Structures
1.
Amino acid sequence: MIGIFGGSGFYSLMESAKEKMIQTPYGNTSSPVRIGKIAGRDVAFIARHGAKHEYPPHKVPFRANVWAMKELGAECIITTTACGSLKKEIMPGDFIVPDQFFNATRRKDTFYDAETVHISAHEPYCPVLRKILSETAAKNGFRVHPSGTVVVIQGPRFSSRAESAFFRSQGFDIINMTQYPEVVLARELEMCYASVSIVTDYDVGLHSDPSIPPVSTENYLSVFKQNVEKVKKLIVDAVPCVPESRACACKDALDGAKI
Ligand SMILES: [Zn+2]
């Protein structure tokens, strides 16, 4: 089983899908889980922001969503996100597959409140899934950055100029509101996780080009819509490449992590 978090536009991709409500110790998932097949593989899909986009980034039930995937037997989670670029060369319309995050959210980000568990986050995204996503994007002729650091902010507002300048000064590549804590929650349950992000804007703009306006909901949605078919194609082509059995370290994340 491969778990996918993305926009509700993905419903149309799944063959013979059935919907299931999964009860979790962390409440309901953002949407019923749609279980079906993509390219012959078993897939479970959750619309991260809800079927009607009723969950803004700071209200997404991240723990319930990740727990439900584990409950269904998913070993891998692939997600799609939108992001802002903090670097000129990472342009709107490009794809990027981050390999590092910087957490700037204030969210519940562990399943282990009653025992002491220190998982490693030195390589938080699954290297096998990342390679599949970036190679699939490149094969389709999409411009793709195969690595990068995403700073994940709390939202729902966009950044101030000062915040954005700080993130750029740290060398971060892109900015997003949803990849954290999904990435570490998946690791805590020994699932592989990777995300492919479509660049929709330049965050607050570019110092070198004052004609580029700061991000607005209208412009990011418009760029996202223009690219949604590419995102779908990428997922449909990537799913059959996911190995049936895992050789990466993600599956052993809890080895020696519990005290
Ligand atoms: Zn992995």
Note: The chain has one domain: 2-252.
2.
Amino acid sequence: MSEESPFDVDSIRSQFPALDRAEDGVPVAYLDGPGGTQSPRQVIAAISQTLERGVSNQGGGFRASVDADRIVEEARSAMADFFNCSAAEVAFGQNMTSLTFALSRALSSAWGPGDAIVLTSLDHDANFTPWVLAARDNGVEVRIAEFDVASGELDPDAIGELLDDRVRLVAVCAAANSIGTVVDVATITEMAHAVGALVFVDAVHIGPHRAIDVQATGCDFLAASSYKFFGPHTGILYGRLDRLAETNAYKVRPAPSDPPGKWETGTQSFESLAGVTAAVDYLAGLGGDGKGSRRSQLVEGFAAVGGYEKTLADRFLDGAGRIDELKVYGSTSEAVDRVATFAIAMEGEAIAALTSRMISAGLYVWSGHYYAVNVMDRLGRTGSGGLIRVGFVHYNTATEVDRVLDVLAG
Ligand SMILES: Cc1ncc(COP(=O)(O)O)c(C=O)c1O
């Protein structure tokens, strides 16, 4: 057990082979979780065993083909537990961006001049540009809800003010991949539904940090990416069954006409889907005594993850507050609900220089805009190299937080 919390991070870390990586004898700290997380052994094994055993395409009737059917079915059922929905409401794709392009194109074919959509400046560009292009192609007005630059928060009223009966869709993230803001999606969904608008949620960044519950939030669509929650590179779309059924998907003729198959273009990566199931099972395994449904174990597992990550976030904020030249963008209050993703800059040191100083110390951090181009614009960082992103997930440690603070303190 670690000293700071009952969360057994040493045992967690022992399940992730990549975390043993060292460069020139210096252990590497993977602080790039927001860009993609590492995978535990059971995910790696599920992927390699699928390929080693042999897997054929679906629909062949022979055993290796039936295996593919089973893998897809198991992954749907795993993701249904992950989202708290039914398996028929889960569709797979290459990544979140591709799924969002496909959905935006499909939904917007029913929109036209006089209609409007609401997007936010807090979102990753994958939940912005696909909608802007779909709106442009159909003569639809785009309204942008602004986050509060000082606090990093997105007030639901900023969206509420833009809503009227012309709005067909609100697209919003559950958490910001840049400054770690957690968004009140349930309230936004209620407001949007009150004017008849659909709600699409980008859950990519919340994925590794919190239990997602589409029933509780009531959203119509939601997309996630398994490589951000310890699985392989596969995107996942949730859609309320009636919405998936009533929306015209762009698909080839022999593909299924019903959801979820009509939303899945071409052949899926079966090895990745086996990995997706293993990632969900890994997260469920963090939930207590292994009793109860996989969904209830996931909820428990994420409660433990959230509690532990908060200790890392608080430790980071506490230490960061003592470094005069350091500026943390977004919320710096330990009382505010956020995920442990921090965008930072140091007065008097260029982003590129600080990034290389951190990377030389074995700290895998990201810098630039990480596709959150509107966020960098609103924070006034576009022309100055963006910001450095330090992201903590549940396999990171208090020691790694301290290593970051030591390098920053210089
Ligand atoms: C918040 C957020 N949304 C969307 C994406 C795009 O996801 P994908 O790479 O699966 O297309 C990312 C990737 O960084 C992200 O962080």
Note: Residues 34, 95-97, 124, 126-127, 173, 177, 202, 204-205, 225, 235, 371 surround pyridoxal-5'-phosphate (CB under 6 Å).
3.
Amino acid sequence: MSLIITGSPGVGKHTIAKSLAKALDYEIFDINKIALESKLYEKTNETNDVDIIKLKKILKKKISKKSIIVGHLAPYALTKSQVSKAIILRKSPYKLSQIYKKRKYSKKKIAENLASEILGIITYDTIKKFGKNKSFQIDTSSKSISKVTKTITDILNGKSKKELIDWLSVVTEKKDLQTFFSY
Ligand SMILES: Nc1ncnc2c1ncn2[C@@H]1O[C@H](COP(=O)(O)OP(=O)(O)OP(=O)(O)O)[C@@H](O)[C@H]1O
Ligand SMILES: [Mg+2]
């Protein structure tokens, strides 16, 4: 059974996966890369639709016990029995918005991804798919790469502490709802 690292774009999935793969001697499988290489993307302007059925079949063949599967498509491309733990990396929408601006995402893409992170869409889908017990959220906003890596190895060793992350409350308290949801 393999480990999943998921979360919104820019939360640090690939950075953490690399660090963790090195620490554990695991192999990384990048779902996006596999989908691209296997030509499973149907590109329509800004949205990318993936052939999930084909993706599921390909992943089933590729993954092993010591796999780290990276990507926001993870909850849709894997079954519960294939996964031992699902790590959901989260990042404050304030920090995430800076990363998106640096990446030169369009205003629409920024607004959509921030709204999704604030509402916790990927978190919701991950917990729904893999269950509460297997799902762990980590706020990476002010943690170093090594700290996040250590937190994950602790979780794998059963020394798990559950973080509760609620950006909607944070944004509401700061009276920034309008800012994030006015697109
Ligand atoms: N724990 C961390 N502490 C500080 N900065 C981090 C941390 N993890 C990642 N970063 C930085 O955050 C940025 C985004 O990281 P990364 O590209 O790994 O995200 P990603 O989730 O893989 O994004 P995408 O979904 O677009 O592939 C990078 O600039 C990276 O250096
Ligand atoms: Mg990445």
Note: The chain has one domain: 2-92+121-164.
4.
Amino acid sequence: MEASVKMQAGAADYLLECPICGGRYEDSPGEFLLSCPEKHPPALLRAIYKVTKFVTHPEHTGVFRFFDWLPIRRKLPGAAGPVAFHSTALGPFLGLENLFIIFNGWWPEKGALMETCTFKELEAQAVCGRIVDGWRSSLVVSSAGNTARAFHDACSRYKVPALLVVPGNSLPLLWSTGASDPEVRLAVLDGGADYADAIELGNGIAATEGFYPEGGARNAARRDGMGTAVLAAVESSGRIPDHYFQAVGSGTGAIAAWEMNLRLQGDDRFARGKMRLHLSQNAPFTPMTDAWEAGSRTLTPAADGRRLSRSIRARVLGNRNPPYSIAGGVFDALTDTRGFMYRVTNTEARKAGRLFEKLEGCDIDPAAQVALASLRQAVDQGRIGRGDMVALNITGGGHRRLRRDRRIAFLRPQATFTLKALRKEGPARGLALLRAALT
Ligand SMILES: [Zn+2]
């Protein structure tokens, strides 16, 4: 109770710790501390919390019921969150007695009420909670689509000024069931641009006055927001899973799951629980699977990575620069948990989607289909015991169901640029044009 009062008064109940040098830092109130100031290779700063016991707070909704383990300055009302339940249809079908499904999306019968239908809503809400009320600079978020949709809704609801930068091919993913706040703006990079191009442009804008970077995987609030998916599984099952399955594009969700597991081990009840990460990518775009199977900490970008990333069913997994090698990143998470990586074809993913819908009764995203297909591979390969506790993170779902229940509107960009035009103008002039279009 005391912790909650202190947080609302604006003093943080967390510090940020560097996994390389062990330095501990207080957070800044607005523009986030995203990296260690010491001179050493880059690392992901982790939040460490005053509260070390896992407690839930049902008086708060969604992700904020886990607020002890979110690096936030304020708890926001009306938030949705992850739900987890024991599967009585898919589990038995796969020969698994203890399959727990973590569902992120719209499935009211299960208590899943995320109207953006994506687990990115977990991170968007946590990141908004990390910003003090009334901060005027504009948060810059680069996205392949789902993240922008989640930040659009969270930033509009909680009045956080934001600029969302997306590649043109992700426009079909940008819709909302709610109202847009005028200070939440959308810039589109067209002409064959992909996610990596959007990140580059976003970084350029975020370095200029009046803007600041959200930080992606480097933002501890983003990771711990996503980590609440694991907390939902523990809340529902009473233990740490033996195995955790998720599809990865950046791998931020997987890093988050691992970090939350380490945090849970600080609570005596869960001290010995370590879940093995089973992470999957959508073939033929599998840079992290390739590197992990080669035993390499270094990613070797495919010469045709841009083309390959466009050929996958789960487009949101097409990240060409994931935080794989960085200290505290995907490679470290896989190493610590003796993890596995998988490659799933478009056909396998599609079949898995149909199977989930038939057995469990809800449509799921292509990325979640990839995760389920990887679970089928793991079962076929004998990696999972019949009684093992398995958590399957359905990172998005319920789109079709939502369309029956709610009216959705597609977002309209405030500025559209082509990659070619920005390059022709040069970076500085390109940025100036973009700023002019937005003001
Ligand atoms: Zn450091």
Note: The chain has 15 helices and 17 strands.
